[in-house]
Amino acid sequence: MPELKLDRITKHFKNKIAVDNVSLCLKNGVYGFLGANGAGKTTLLRMICGVLKPTAGEILCNGSSITKLDGDYRYMLGYLPQDFGYYPDFTARRYLEYLAACKAIPRELAKEKVQEMLCLTGLESDQRSKIKTFSGGMLRRLGIAQALLNDPEILILDEPTSGLDPKERIRFRNIISSLSKGRIIILSTHIVSDVEFIADEILLMKQGRIIEQGSIQEVTASVSGKVWEYLADPETALRLNDTFAVSNLKNEDNQVRLRLVSDTCPCEGALPVQPGLEDVYLYHFEEVSEHVEHLERRTL
Ligand SMILES: Nc1ncnc2c1ncn2[C@@H]1O[C@H](COP(=O)(O)OP(=O)(O)OP(=O)(O)O)[C@@H](O)[C@H]1O
Ligand SMILES: [Mg+2]
Q: Is the CB of 51 under 6 A from ligand 1?
């Protein structure tokens, strides 16, 4: 089973520090890197893949530097980049066969693997369609299929659910769960629900640093006693919404139920409630993640 060690990894772009002294030890399991735009997720993942060289620090796989391991390390990797490129005129099958050849997978095994991946990602019936006719969700699934062709021990997925609708997101989560045994899966997202149910460990990234790390229970415990619910009249709700970080608003008859994050009791009558990962995100990033914005937030 693989073990990845990041030893004081830093990346500078001119005078910008994109990743700042990150040390981690990753073993078997699903790791969800959660952070706002520009937090440094892609930069860190690209260094883990070996496509970007750190300014300082070292990445070790099973005790050896990934630079020294070179091809042996790449053979262990599957990578879905954030800006995954493809050939629009290829069919899905041909594209996967082509990439299998690039990864030096023997021909017979490649055929088998391509078929297996088409089934796993639900693209079997679309395998003869040209990629340019694919929806965003189908493209992401194709991206996951190519990353898995070599049965990688380390799977790195950068924003794998961007552009997916809720149904596709659930499908994606199920695929990841089915793959999670015996490998390291690293995925980055700014959508809490992507990692809430499947990650063994959550890593919150902000301004190039890991600011929280642990199981969902451990990470949510960090905001214990800071999440409140309050049933307010619409006018008070508006005022509270302007003053506090609100993670959810819900109309109930003529009143509004607010869920808000605050170090101290926001108003008399507010009750402390069990925190969720969404609340942790809001506490650290003071912005409502896309999930709440689109699915749960109700206008006043
Ligand atoms: N090639 C580059 N040259 C200069 N600056 C860069 C480069 N790549 C990234 N950066 C900067 O490094 C910081 C981290 O970027 P990165 O893409 O790693 O963030 P991210 O967490 O992946 O964001 P997003 O959620 O938008 O994908 C940003 O400020 C970005 O502008
Ligand atoms: Mg990114």
A: no
